[in-house]
Amino acid sequence: MRWPWKKRTLSFDEAARFNWELDTNAELRQKMDELAKQYTNLSEKEYRRKLLLLFQENGLAIDSDQMDMLLLLRHKTDQMLLRQEEDHNEETR
Description:
mainly alpha
């Protein structure tokens, strides 16, 4: 039974698919770039609604909270990878 007060957790597969789509789906990336250009003319609510719609059109059925979590996870992963790369570059100098 799904309890309305419990948030649905994301599986590793869902997170991996989200990242894979962002990294490899050229059409999604192009549409996200076009949406980003409209950012100044949209409210945050409208921007987020359109972004979620883009994800849904590309087979990623996520809600707003899940999108926030996935984007935060992606951001933190990028930070860790950059830090790791910087450490590696310092070691090789």
